[in-house]
Amino acid sequence: MSQAIQLVTLYYQAFNEGDMESFLNLLTDDIVHDINQGERQTGKKLFSAFMDKMNKHYREQLVDIRIMANSEGTHAAAEFTVLGEYLVTAEGLPEAKGQTYRISAGAFFDFKDNKISRITNYYNLEDWNNQVSI
Q1: Residue 91 pLDDT more than 80?
Q2: Are 32 and 118 within 8 A, CB to CB?
Q3: pLDDT score, position 37
Q4: How far apart are CA 93 and CA 118, in angstroms?
Q5: Helix (H) / strand (E) containing 10
Q6: What is the rounded distance in angstroms from the CA atom of residue 132 to the CA atom of residue 88?
Q7: Share of residues in the chain with pLDDT > 70 (%)
Q8: Which pLDDT band, with edges at 50, 70 and 90, does 134 fall under?
Q9: What is the C-alpha to C-alpha distance for residues 96 and 92, in angstroms, rounded to an integer?
Q10: What confidence tier does 1 reach under pLDDT thresholds 50, 70, 90?
Q11: How confident is the model at residue 33, as a pLDDT?
Q12: What distance in Å separates the CA atoms of residue 106 and residue 66, rounded to the nearest whole number?
């Protein structure tokens, strides 16, 4: 259990520090990424491209992070608050004007070979849309 919690802690620490190299090194090459209300992507290359796109459109910090893991350490979940700024308009979304937002979010993780092998993210897209549509 402690290994799983440690991996997720390092994952969010690297995210908050903007350290994409360390962030990506915590993932298996065949990482499965379930995008919030979107498609499933497989592979570190696709995940890296997704993060490049996210980092272009948004500046985010995660706070109030709570991590839980099963006793075997094979699965974990995290709940947190996203403090963000909408920087550049993303296709199909409202126009970006530097709006800030605060949303609750969660993620689910699987592990393989002491790395993260699956990430499923969830947040309330309608709440986010309401906050940036001002």
Answers
A1: yes
A2: yes
A3: 86
A4: 26
A5: helix 2-17
A6: 12
A7: 99
A8: confident
A9: 11
A10: low
A11: 97
A12: 9
Query: Which class for 108: exposed (0-12), middle (13-18), buried (19 or more C-beta within 10 A)?
Result: middle
Centre a 10 Å sphere on the Cβ of residue 103 and count the other Cβ atoms it contains.
17
Q: Which domains does the chain have, with CATH numbers?
A: 2-132 (3.10.450.50)
Tell me the mean pLDDT in the region 58-64: 98
User: Locate tokens 């993620």: which residue?
Assistant: 107
Contacts of 95 (CB under 8 A, 6+ apart): 89
Is the pTM here over 0.85, yes or no? yes
Which residues, at least 6 apart from 6, have a Cβ–Cβ distance to it below 8 Å? none
Q: Among positive and negative, which fits the CA dihedral 95, 99, 100, 103? A: negative
Closest-CA residue to 115 (of 40, 18, 23, 49): 23
Question: In the chain, which ranges are E strands?
Answer: 27-34, 40-42, 58-69, 75-86, 100-112, 115-123
